[in-house]
Amino acid sequence: MRPGEHPEERRARARRRARLLLFASAGLFGLSASLAKLAAERGMGGGPLTLVRFSLGLTFVATLFRLRPGTFRPVRRWLLVSRGLFGGASALLYFLAIARIPAGEATLLNNTFPIWAVLLSFLVLDERPTLHLALALAVASAGVYLVLGGGALAFGLGVGALLGLASGVLGGVAVTSIRALRGTDNAPTIFFAFSVGGFLLSLPFAAGPWPATPWGWAAALGVGVASFLAQLSMTEAYGALSVAEAALWHQLTPIASYLWALGVNGERVGWATAVGVLLGVAGIFYGSVLGHAPREARSPEAALAAGLPAEEP
């Protein structure tokens, strides 16, 4: 806290920082999705890709703990286990879905997690979004739908679609756990739990296929680096924003994924995509300006998170 800074000014500064972190996180998650599709096209299965991603994540966060002693500070251990298991399962199912269905369809199904997170935060953390935030989330979600499929995505009940939808549901549980944890546990500790859970869950699926070309491995390593930076930024941001507003900013991720795919995967932009990008950005801008002050949550978890210092390591 800066000397002489009013508590409300401190909270406003923390929210601005959190929004910047989520903006960066969305771009990195979008890059990760494009690289994941590239790795799948080069022969890497969803299980091996998940294992590579979490192996790199564990390596990076262990290095951080060694360079900054005292950073690893687990407090609410059972909630950390919940974050690790649900978050790891969500990531694994998402990569398994990408290996079976188009990346746009898998990403859209996975990106239903903000909706589940808002519902859970209402029930568990007593966070109630304002009408402005709810409307903004609906507008941004409509933009995401146009971006990913030009409004023409048709979902079936195949294995890939079910895996993608399940990843969204579990992702909603995981990010609600993050919000609850940020009152007591720092971002690197939460990420460590996530990485351990993902690593253990992906081991049974790591039998193959593995890529035979260097490009497949390069794409997989890129997924690991981008995902590590994205997850750490996202987790840090949840200390200052409600689940509802953070969910709104998450709608940038599939938009970023499509924009990255223009260069990485050679996809094209149509009129519906352009309209979708504009809707997504407009929804996020509207929600951030008018919807940032939901009714104060009454749960101890949300109250703790709301008072967390933004400079938490």
Compute the gyration radius: what is it? 19 Å
Shape: globular
Structural class: mainly alpha
H and E string: HHHHHHHHHHHHH
Distance between the termini: 14 Å
Task: Tell me what portion of residues adopts beta-strand conformation.
Answer: under 5%
Structure description:
- The chain has 13 helices and no strands.
- By secondary structure, it is an all-alpha fold.
- It has one domain (28-306).
- Helix 2 (46-67) runs antiparallel to helix 8.
- The longest helix is centred in the first third of the chain and has 35 residues, at 7-41.
- The radius of gyration is 19 Å and the shape is globular.
- The two termini are 14 Å apart.
- Mean pLDDT is 78; it is low at 293-298 and 302-313.
Keywords:
mainly alpha, 13 helices
Draw up the topology in text.
Elements: H1 7-41, H2 46-67, H3 77-98, H4 103-110, H5 113-125, H6 131-149, H7 159-181, H8 187-202, H9 214-237, H10 243-250, H11 252-264, H12 271-290, H13 300-306
